[in-house]
Model the fold of this input.
Amino acid sequence: MQDDEEIKNGELIFAELETYLDNAKKIVIEQHQLMTLNHIQEELLFHALERIIMRIQCS
Done:
């Protein structure tokens, strides 16, 4: 059974992740509207986000 501290830490992590992903989505939408392809073509950034999403989906 999880204790209160562990649950609180988990909630903070999820809140931080949600904020990060919301901000990332806003940036992607903005860059898409501006057709700023150089940002989206940054392979390291794209693949890092892709790995995060795949890990979440697999868990």
